[in-house]
Amino acid sequence: MPVTxxxxxxxxxxxxxxxxxxxxxxxxxxxxxxxxVREAAAQLGYVRSEAGRTLSSGRTxxxxxxxxxxxxxxxxxxxxxxxxxxxxLGYQLTLQTESSDDEGIVERLVSAGxxxxxxxxxxxxxxxxxxxxxxxxxxxxxxxxxxxxEADAVVVTPDAxxxxxxxxxxxxxxxxxxxxxxxxxxxxARARETSLRHALTSHGIAVDERFVRRATFDSDAGEEAMQxxxxxxxxxxxxxxxxxDLVAFGALNTAHRAGxxxxxxxxxxxxxxxxxxxxxxxxxxxxxxxxxxMARVAAELIVERIDDFTPPPQRREFVxxxxxxxxxxxxxx
Amino acid sequence: MPVTxxxxxxxxxxxxxxxxxxxxxxxxxxxxxxxxVREAAAQLGYVRSEAGRTLSSGRTxxxxxxxxxxxxxxxxxxxxxxxxxxxxLGYQLTLQTESSDDEGIVERLVSAGxxxxxxxxxxxxxxxxxxxxxxxxxxxxxxxxxxxxEADAVVVTPDAxxxxxxxxxxxxxxxxxxxxxxxxxxxxARARETSLRHALTSHGIAVDERFVRRATFDSDAGEEAMQxxxxxxxxxxxxxxxxxDLVAFGALNTAHRAGxxxxxxxxxxxxxxxxxxxxxxxxxxxxxxxxxxMARVAAELIVERIDDFTPPPQRREFVxxxxxxxxxxxxxx
Lengths: 333, 333
Fold this sequence. Notes:
12 helices, Rossmann fold, 12 strands, 3 domains, alpha/beta, elongated, 333 residues, homodimer, 18% strand
């Protein structure tokens, strides 16, 4: 049995990730700790798997951001922070794209010689994670996860944010809500729906199922869903939750064209806190998450995973926050 | 002297690019033409430089989209169309980024083994084009060009669009304009300024230099520039041109906060026709260009250039169009 990084960690009295970082000379580890780790590794005769791989297969120090849904411009927000964090860790970022479950993508990643992958937008049923695992390519889920393979993941926890939003809405007199939910095929839409329904129920707001729609995560879909909601004969609820800000922008556009006052007639809440949500002419109540920090953590996780594939997968949860703005007002009476 | 693709083109009675396309089995060329070209090539004993390079240096069929200004999210709009067009031509897209004139970027492109580069946002004085030329890496300028090296380029021609905008503004009674111009270090800002000034003068609208500012191409810069304009004591002109839509959105935000009516007090015109410009709550008059088609042409030009480096550089100009919307109204009296 070869010596593992965990044994080095125990002897050095540090965590396993610190061992990986120390041995690749990561600037986040102090010189003193690096020295302790190096001595422990030498004492145990530890050989980094990374070093072996460098000799046998040639590390490229390139990491792919794999986007499986190019129309969803969510990934744009994370390119810059992932790129910068990887650069400080001595890695280069390359953007790879596939159209829905393209058979060839994993082969192309292999031939492009990437050391690891940040997987940004897989549908829940995607087979890409299975193929990456089968080819031994380390990867980390960013925001969306897939049920097929466990791996390191950086995700948003929306519970507290929806709870605050529902509490605030209840205080403003809202008793009944509609929703434009995201595609069931995405883990983010599923998690947000569960969290939203729980929060609304907790605060005495009923979900009116006649006013629940599903839409892809873009503003055109939001416009159409809102048209469909407004076309219903029944009385529209006073409150509408949207799968993300793009969908909410679309809903606001339709409301504006139809002369439906927001928040006078219907209050609207988004998700993401895109820059336009803050524009005074939009002023969208929404749920914010620190995607930049999530992106940096994803960069760190994939580098750690490349260095040492043995530890169990890590799941890093980021708690979202409700941001109250003008589109949430008192319930129409 | 080896036989060139131009001689093959003459014998086959087709253009040189058609020869390149036919010999790489591009689907845009008919089977009949491919046959004619193959016969002409065989008759002359023509050997494709591509074939030689594949054997000697190993083509990767990877093309980099090089973004030198990651904060400018303009490049986002072209990722999908460049990616798709390259895929149909048998090439993969990889996104590479650099912070302003990073010394190492060209070396990284060499080590990543890209066959060519689409250069999206170089400042005019960038040395990256010189380094690419010196290392023999084919590249094409997208939208912005640099004065240092001539190369294939896909650019926007704004003259007709600004002429129409100025004519329309003059008809609405505007006689004096201000402007938030882009950075002098970009070829796009320079070209737009020249074109705008010429158009305004032609239609009897004076540029009031007290109300001219420069800003980077983002909405924060637009907000600040508009604050600075509104802080002037002198009477603000009735018309304001903005370097791009993001700058215009920022200016609209500041106007909204300051209670300055658009277009009642000041009309605003952007550039780019971003999706949000069409939102009814924004309704921004702007200048549109078919960036998707430009992106596809850039993909074609770089593949042609990789196949044959001998022809002189091509410059493809796309004519922009004025899009009249709600933020352009009659001049305040």
